[in-house]
Amino acid sequence: MPDTPHTPLTASNASNAAAGAPTPADRGLPTVDISGWTCPTPLRDQPRVVMGHGGGGALSAELVQQIFVPAFGGEVLAQLGDSAAVALGGARLAFSTDSFVVRPLFFPGGSIGDLAVNGTVNDLAMSGARAAYLSCGFILEEGVEMPVVAGVADAMGAAARVAGVEVATGDTKVVEAGHGDGVYINTAGIGLIPDGVDLRPQRVVPGDVVIVSGDIGVHGVAIMSVREGLEFGVEIESDCAALGGLVETMLAVTPDLHVLRDPTRGGLAAALCEIATASCTGIVIQERAVPVPPAVANACAILGLDPMYVANEGKLVAFVPREHADAVLAAMRRHPLGAGAAVIGEAVATHPGMVVARTPLGGTRVVDLPLGEQLPRIC
């Protein structure tokens, strides 16, 4: 979309639009020139955070690239993986943090407690690491019922035991009534990366086979169904699960996997777009090969959603060298969390940085990074 002539919008002069309102500069805050940021709007029209900034799409990426990366700097952060691979005392560690603001707190197949553990364990697993320890920070809203807090904590403890990880430290804060949404959770995790494992999108090369571990879109639709009181003829349960064991099974076949991602916010589409951009390769997927269960397909048709953009919490996408693809796929299918694994496409040398889907009718379409999010507050 071509730019139209405009006055560069900064946090300072945009605030001046409200007569008499103090500018960031008046408050000693830096101004940020967002004139070169993503089009379309809303960034240039309102220099404030919007819900789409948390959706895992273009707005999220822009917020990180334009604000946080320049502010924090550092080569490790610049990798922008699900977790950071760092060297410490002769060991290679995976280190990750995540925050969870899901609504409702309990849903078919899980709760915010399960998400907090499994989400962080999975971020570490995408670096090839088995999670060892987690931290846990609870932000509680004044007035939330104690049985609710206890239920979340119990679910979190149970998920940690299943995943084989220990919650080693934590913190609790309380905010005034009306300034939260019951319970928010922040977790951080660390784990050891085995020797010979190097999982990052820059290793993807043309010819790599793209494998997804099972049905997509399940978690997002499960959340939406209970949030809005919708019925789709069958109860849809979240696919929330810890993927460390599945990743170990895959690495036992070959440590030479190129990249793994868990397609959470922004769904499978966002994960593929991020990998294509970081690897400077093209990606071609076959739409008919992408496993979408009928209940999810029907729900998305009713809601006007694309399953490719709906979040998952217990699935992964892998880029595997072609010579290992058959063996890795077979091993995945022998694992309970990979029984529905399927090859959905490949990396190609053409159209670098772009994801293209071949439709069942023989056409093609570009799979873009979503701007914001289809379903808010799902992880």
How would you sum up this structure, described in words?
- There is one protein chain.
- The chain has 379 residues and is an alpha+beta fold.
- 40% of the residues are buried.
- The chain is globular and about 55 Å long.
- α7 packs across α10.
- The protein is built from 10 helices and 14 strands.
- The chain has 3 domains: 1-13 and 38-76, no CATH class; 90-192, 2-Layer Sandwich (60s Ribosomal Protein L30, Chain: A), CATH 3.30.1330.10; 201-367, PurM-like C-terminal domain (Phosphoribosyl-aminoimidazole Synthetase, Chain A, domain 2), CATH 3.90.650.10.
- A 7-stranded mixed sheet has the order 9-11-8-12-10-13-14.
Condensed summary:
The chain has helices spanning 11-15, 58-72, 75-78, 112-125, 146-163, 218-227, 244-253, 267-279, 294-303, 322-334, and strands at 84-88, 91-100, 106-107, 110-111, 130-141, 166-175, 183-192, 209-212, 259-261, 282-286, 317-320, 342-348, 355-358, 364-367. By secondary structure, the chain is α+β, with helices and mostly antiparallel strands. The two termini are 31 Å apart.
Overall 3D form: globular
Helix and strand succession?
Answer: HHHEEEEHEHEEEHHEHEHEHEEE
**Biggest sheet: strand arrangement:** 9-11-8-12-10-13-14
| Structural class computed from helices and strand pairing | alpha+beta
How is the main sheet built?
A: 7 strands, mixed
Number of helices: 10
Mean pLDDT: 84
Helix proportion of residues, in percent? 25-40%
Q: Find the CATH superfamily of the largest domain.
A: PurM-like C-terminal domain
Number of domains: 3
Q: Any guess at the CATH architecture of the largest domain?
A: Alpha-Beta Complex
**What is the end-to-end distance?**
31 Å
Strand residue percentage: 15-25%
> Could you tell me the number of beta strands?
14
Organism: Streptomyces nigrescens
Family: Belongs to the HypE family.
Region (Disordered): 1-34
InterPro entries: HypE (IPR011854), PurM-like_C_dom (IPR010918), PurM-like_C_sf (IPR036676), PurM-like_N (IPR016188), PurM-like_N_sf (IPR036921)
